What we know:
Order of helices and strands: HH
Helix content: 55-70%
Number of helices: 2
Largest sheet: none
Number of strands: 0
Oligomer: single chain
Radius of gyration: 19 Å
Strand content: under 5%
Amino acid sequence: MDKRNLAFGRANFILLAFGMVVVILGFILMSGSGSTETEFNADIFSPMRIKVAPIVCFVGFVSIIYAIIYRTKDKENKK
């Protein structure tokens, strides 16, 4: 298989994996126990869940978009 026919290079896949890990980390930070009908859990409104975790997810999604757009510099393109 010729490497020129691949849409992404090695760097793209590494950046894509990093972005996915960051997004998964953000969703893990958002998870937790919720409130029930009989008991209210105030942790639902913790800063970790409503501020930090969405920002982490956003950074992950932006890095995934960057990984898709990123173009490696080939030696042949420098002519």
